[in-house]
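Standup notes
- DV: blocked on the single-chain target, sequence here:
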Amino acid sequence: MLANLPTTNGVQILVCVLLTALIGFATWAKVRKSKGTHDGSGKDVFLAGGGLTWMFVAGSITLTNLSTDQLVGMNGNQMLLLAWWEICGFAGLLILAFVFVPIYYKNNCTTVTELLEKRYKGRSIRTLISALFLFGNILIYLPAALYSGALFMQSLFGSDLPLIYFAGVLAVISAAYTIFGGLRAVAVMDTYSGFGILGLAMLIVVLALAAVDYDIVSDVPMERLTMIGGPDSPIPFHTLFTGMIFIQIFYWSTNQNITQRAMAAPTVKEAQKGVMVAAIIRILIVPPIVVIPGIVAYKMFGDIGDAAYGRLVAEVLPGWLSGAFAAMVAAAVITTFSSILNSSVALYSIDFHEQYIGKVNDHWKLAAAISILLTVLAIMLVPLYQNAESIINLLQQLNGLLSMPILSAFIAGLLFRGVAAPAAVGGVIWGVLLYGAYTFRLEPAGIITMHYIDFMVVTLVTSVMSALLINRFLLGNRARFAGFKAALT
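- DV (later): unblocked, structure below
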């Protein structure tokens, strides 16, 4: 499959290297001029000292989410249906802007888990949720970002080098941003590289359509063109009204990797402005770039899975631009990896090291050490993803192990009063075990045939119910429903 791709020449590689270096230099120059205390505090390293303007909030949120797992994974499904993930993300960002951003700022949070400790007045739930976030970042999101990026670079360049080599280079560059610049550098790089990534991605959509005379209907099965998913599709249509909305609420509003960017603005209004700009980008630009190239690749090459995007780009993009696009793809991987890495270090430093080991006098030094450790682990885990049939479907399924149990803790804590922290812990553990049993045992054995998006609702509802039942019958506490307005107070 890769043998038919053109071999990249020295000029294209040079263009890729120079553009990557240019983004790095521009980021360094901006960060160097930025105003901030640079005192080594948690807020300095992990929230950019509260100094991100709306433009950098929007850029960082967009590029933290948009990486090669979207470009490669969604286009790898080669069907329009996958656009629903991005379209529904618009609603998730609105909820972040107008519901959760005011809550986080009112509670002066550095991590989303701080809110849980304050709501439950107990440390145990904060520790558990932080551990789950770290588990997901280390075992799922960091290596998956490297894998999808390395796969694309290998496909684009037609190289025989092992994936691990590409992954290692991307990881080292990503770690450098986190180690030397913290969230401030990550957000600036996200924004600068975002203009190039989105622009070139849209250019590829236009070139791809031109390559098939703007006809993506003929010779393509209808199940790949419909937006109404059947029961056996990756997104059955009814799931848009069941589990999809809860997935979006978790990802955009309670996920440390995303919300950390929104918490780094100087005011609530500045943060909301940035989130809204990210929402506009999400609904207008992202859907076409993550599905149309995959459809065109199906028309041109057939069903080739996750290699579709790289194969198409190598086919339609002029040779003189391939180096520039490689630089933008590298930037997309670097921004996502460095953002998740920064969030992971924040969770460890604030929620574990300071609480259980000792006060951190200089978060920069601790962040550097933890960043190196997590980067090495992520590189070592990349080979585990090479046997996945679809990287994006695998990520969404694995995400259920954490997303709904974690969201249940936020729902019980925000909408109810009188729920003890151990009860919330019990509800989360129930959710993880239930979804794990479904994913690895019940669904493969045909015992439960429910689609995983539907089962996420089952997991969420039963997790909240478990927390309330444990709170009442094991801990002897009476919880009361406080309502949606109370969640904002």
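- Follow-up: The beta strands are 416-417, 480-481.
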